[in-house]
Amino acid sequence: MWLTGALFAGVLLISMGLPAARAQSENDPEAKGILDAVSAKYRSYDYIKADFSYTYTSPHEDGPFTEKGSLFVEPGGDKYRVQIAGQEMISDGKTAWVFLPEVNEVQVSALSGDSEELNPAQLFTLHEKGFKYVLKGESRLDGKSVYLIDLVPLESSAYSKMELAVEKNAKLIHRLKVFDKNGNHYIYTINAVDFSPHVDGSFFVFDKNAHPGVEVVDLR
């Protein structure tokens, strides 16, 4: 999915039909404390840049397939900019652009104001609604001590669960692993985080003037 150019389409741009979260008593209180600390940390910054790797594995295909990229987000907001495999996905919260530099083309679409779709800007806070969560235990990943927390959608979804690996001391998300019902796995590993990237709101708008001759495909 990732490699086709729909960069977060497999996981973070799907409509999961997420309802408002149910009573908090259904969730593991220890997991809630960890996730609340994660949300508070990310939401304390205006913008974040994360360098990540993405791995897709499937029992039905050769692989795994791995790519590296960068993600700029407004934590808790709707602005994002994803750069991977020579492509970019950009959104200011109202309009989305997919820029394909190899063919100098940008596809423009409108975002629905009442959409319940997840988007890359919600990567660090996606646990806040629509899931039941439980602390599975502790482990070590890439030399880091982490908590492993399962997120299970409260309503029917193409995905059976997501697993968050949260760094114990830093309270940062180290990995998101998504399990779909066809046996496919989508793994996003955060390799580095910059909490003060030199960007502002204009960075989350596609600048047509910076790409002379770009073909605009307006899907609105």
SSE map:
Blueprint: H1 29-43, E1 48-57, E2 65-73, E3 80-84, E4 87-91, E5 95-100, E6 105-110, E7 131-141, E8 144-153, E9 159-167, E10 173-180, E11 185-194, E12 215-218
Parallel strand pairs: 6-12
Antiparallel strand pairs: 1-2, 1-11, 2-3, 3-4, 4-5, 5-6, 7-8, 8-9, 9-10, 10-11
Please give the CATH architecture: Clam
SSE succession: HEEEEEEEEEEEE
- Overall residue-averaged pLDDT value: 84
Give unreliable regions as ranges. 1-25
Describe the 3D structure.
This protein has 220 residues and is mainly beta. The chain has a single domain (28-201), classed as Lipoprotein localisation LolA/LolB/LppX (outer membrane lipoprotein receptor (LolB), chain A). 7% of the residues lie in helices and 42% in strands. The protein has one helix at 29-43; strands spanning 48-57, 65-73, 80-84, 87-91, 95-100, 105-110, 131-141, 144-153, 159-167, 173-180, 185-194, 215-218. Strands 7-8-9-10-11-1-2-3-4-5-6-12 form a twelve-stranded mixed β-sheet, with helices on one face. A hairpin with a 5-residue loop joins strand 8 and strand 9 (159-167). The radius of gyration is 17 Å and the shape is globular. The two termini are 23 Å apart.
